[in-house]
C-alpha cells in the first residue's frame, strides 16, 4: 500500500506556505491530506503560521501571540515566497491571486477541507507558546463546532492533531478519545527508540532524516500498533524509502511531484 500524500503547509514548493492558494493547489493536485501549523493571536484566534514571529513569511514584524487577528490580516503573506510555479507558463498566464496574501485562519482552512470530504487535515499545535494548553482547548472547541472533535473512529476522522510536545498530545486526548494524534519526533531518544509510544498517541511522526539512519524504526513502531507519519519528504530517494518501508502518511512540499514518484 502506497503512503498517503500530505501537502506540507499546502503545495508550499509552488505557492507561499499557509495560504489559501497553497492549499487549493494541493487539493487540485490530488493530495490525500493537508498539513498546517496553528498558533493563537493575541485576541484568541487560531491562525496558520509556522514561526513564532511573522517576519519570515509576511511583510510585517512581530510575535504572533502579540498581534491581533486584525493586525495579522493587514500583512502580506504571499510576496515573500521564492518558490517558482509548477509550470513555466504560469509566469505569464497566471493572474495575481489575492488569496495568497492574507493570513489564513484555521476556520477558513476547515471550510476548505469540509468541502472535500476525502481530504484529511493534519493540524500541528506549536510549542512552547505563551498560551500553553489554551491552543489545544481552542482547537478542540473549533472542531466540536464543525462536528469533527469526536469522530466515530480514528480511521474515519477527517482531522488529525499533531505536536512535538507530548503534553499537547496528551491534553487533546483528555478532550476527546477518538480524535487521532501524532507525536512528532525530531530525534529517537532512549524512550522512543524501540518504537513504543505513550497511550495517548496513535501515530509516530519521525523526520525523514531518522528513517535514513534507522529504517527499521517503522517496523518497530508497527509492532506496537503505531503507523508512521513522516516529514518532510521531497527528495526522490526519500520518497522511495518511505514507500519501501510502508509508512502510512508522507508529508511533502510538492504533492504532485511526490505522487508522480509514487506512480499515482
UniProtKB/TrEMBL annotation:
Domain (GP-PDE) ranges: 3-262
PROSITE patterns linked: GP_PDE
GO molecular function: glycerophosphodiester phosphodiesterase activity
UniProt keyword Zinc, yes or no: no
EC category: hydrolase
EC id: 3.1.4.46
Name this polypeptide is given: Glycerophosphoryl diester phosphodiesterase
Keyword Hydrolase: yes
Keywords, ordered alphabetically: Hydrolase
UniProt cross-references to InterPro entries, sorted A to Z: GP_PDE_dom, PLC-like_Pdiesterase_TIM-brl
One GO-annotated biological process of the protein: lipid metabolic process
Signal sequence, renumbered to the chain: none
PANTHER family with a match to the protein in the record: GLYCEROPHOSPHODIESTER PHOSPHODIESTERASE 1-RELATED, GLYCEROPHOSPHORYL DIESTER PHOSPHODIESTERASE
